[in-house]
Amino acid sequence: MPRAATFGLFYLAVFLQAGAYGLTFMLPRLFATFDANEKIVGAMLLITTLATLVSVSFSGHLSDWFGRVGTLAMACLSIAAGLALFGRAGGVGPALVMASVLLGAGWGLTYALAPIVLTRLVAGHERVRAFALLTVFVMAGFGFAPVIAARIEAAGGTIAQAFYLTAGLCFASAVIFGVLIGPVRRHAVNPGPEARSRLSIATIGAVLRSPARLPVFMVFLGASVFAGLNNFQTVFADDRGLSYADFFLVYTLTVIACRIGLVRFSGGARPYLTIAGLQFFMVASVLLFLVSGSSQVAYVAVAILFGIGYGASYPILAAMAANDAEPEIVPQTLQLFALTYFVGIFGFPLIAGWLIVEVGTPALLSVVAGLAGIEAGLALRRGLRG
Predict the structure, then answer these.
(1) CATH (domain of 340)
(2) Which domain holds residue 58?
(3) Helix axes 59-66 and 94-121, enclosed angle (nearest 10)
(4) What is the pLDDT of residues 299-312, one digit of tens each?
(5) pLDDT digits (tens, 9 = 90+) for 281-305
């Protein structure tokens, strides 16, 4: 298989499975069909979270046993099975628990291992471009899945059918990854055997002693900002009489456009200054949202600024995590990067939910703006130090 075809199929497989995460926003609608409330949704997402964190922690062990691309194929099968179980669910029970475990385990593995596979296919100076393109396809799948689900419902279908459709796409993704096992090995920049990938106390310590500890920590802050703004966007929009669909559509299109632009950009001579500049757009977006009220124009501006700030800075930050690490611990660095990302994505909503109930949404947005400012400041400090 030619190298270009290998990359094309790899990104297609990533796109096909990425819609699974976007469908998690549809779980309240799905659960409502069998009279399960938001508490049940939260409980199932907690199970998904735990499965995700465990799978990321052990992704290196699995890839050492089955190979990274082979493990990606198995992960997509896990996601497909989980989505199909969700679609079939007729009530609260063991099937929902198993669906949550399968979805979380599969998503954690695909998120952790796909960038590691890319580092084997591209040289260091190509990583920003490769990671940007990877996140374009992830964002496209994630962002459009809820839109497709809404279209299915509008056409008279059921939300369960959206889960079945996405399960089929994830199965196709598993088949593609299976086909790519040989071509990825042949087109590797370093044709030798894959380095050991498993996380251990020693390798975690090595990562934390390296310059890569900064992007590993920064991605936790960014994920917390993302979760605080996006996971509760329906709440913000309902309070202000806005349509959350507008936010997600504008945000998704902005992120895709920015990341396509990054495909032709390697981060510049001082990439951390680039990251800082972009993340100050993220700070501006949260501050604007804090004071914008029910203005539709401002709402669209918030989505655009957040798409530029968070969406464009993330792939550069991921590339810096790989580039700042010693070559022998790049796989472990990217796994730890994924782990801290998921801690922010799934952990911060617990704090955010408490803030909304006990203090109110302005308090949450103030905290989110503060976290965004800290992340941008850390990037600026690193960039100025060279």
Answers:
(1) 1.20.1250.20
(2) 1-178
(3) 70
(4) 999 999 999 999 88
(5) 999 999 999 999 889 999 999 999 9
